[in-house]
Automatic annotation (TrEMBL):
It comes from Pogona vitticeps. Pfam families: RnaseA. Residues 26-146 form the Ribonuclease A-domain domain. Residues 1-27 form the signal peptide. One of its GO terms (molecular function) is nucleic acid binding. Keywords: Endonuclease, Hydrolase, Nuclease, Signal. One of its GO terms (biological process) is defense response to Gram-positive bacterium. InterPro entries: RNaseA (IPR001427), RNaseA-like_dom_sf (IPR036816), RNaseA_AS (IPR023411), RNaseA_domain (IPR023412). Belongs to the pancreatic ribonuclease family. This is Ribonuclease.
Amino acid sequence: MADQGSHLGLTGMLLLLMVAWLATVDAESYQKFLRQHVDYPMTQVPEAQYYCNLMMKRRNLATSGHCKHLNTFLHADTASIQAVCGQAGDPTTGDLRESHASFPLTICRLQKGSWAPDCRYQGISGLERIIIACEEGYPVHLQTEVPGY
């Protein structure tokens, strides 16, 4: 007869490993969100037109092999953005939440005819509400901006 204690110990160990793995996945998703979408305080550049070119390269969103077509940088502190996952946002669909407040942001759009490795972007700054996906109370994906608010 098999030792039940060893089976329970193995099951418990597997459960702990799974929880640790999920926590790592959430932490990695949050860190990726921060890298791709948060620039606070906003990086200063000599000329505003160069902001997107600099930031897309700096955050590895424009590389020698690939140009991301569209990306939004939020210019707000992480606590304000994270609050959208709680009291500062309303649920929409699935794990998405829409912010009550507007956030300063810059939308970087790849210019037509621009290809890797020479990715060139046009930036548009604004103040918009946002829709983000949250996991375990942390933002992990910027779905969109809500224009006109």
